[in-house]
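Bug #77: duplicate submission created two jobs. Keeping one. Sequence:
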Amino acid sequence: MSILNRKFRSANAHRLPPGQHEARGWPVLHFGGVPRVDLDAWRFRLFGAVDRERALTLDEFKALPTTDVRADFHCVTKFSVFDNDWHGVAVRDVLALVTLDPAASHVMLHAAEGYTTNLPLDVFADDDTLFAWARNGEPLSRQHGAPLRLIVPKRYAWKSVKWVTGVDVLTADRRGFWEERGYHNDADPWAEERYSYQEQS
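Kept job's structure:
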């Protein structure tokens, strides 16, 4: 390893959650294949514990107020990518399209091919969470979640759903795809919450 690389790693070490290493580039990981999305038929749904269901086309979604967020990205497989510049729509601006049931406490994110993941409502609506269609000034590739993915910087990246298609607002928690298969329900990288057995300790 060169002196330059040692200095680079040392300068960023404080930003790595426990057990993580800094990646070069942006690795592609997901369950199953890369779906082919019919953009004309694509709809983003807000439903569940809301006053009325909403469905948006991709053009309608992109017409919402946009925002930019710089954030690090931490995958449960132990790689981290620093300083991603995401462009899209803040979750809070999406939620503003509906009135939430006062009992709403969690959400279930839905994506292509039946993928789901859950989040507490306050985590989902944090200041730095957004639905993104671009990273570092470039449109997302299909492999990285185009046409739309959720970004949740404070959680492991399986919560940052690729190919997202909707939000089911819940009045009680319910586990999603990986959570039902042994991944931690909360997924905080700084607490190294990777697997569900850690929830019992």
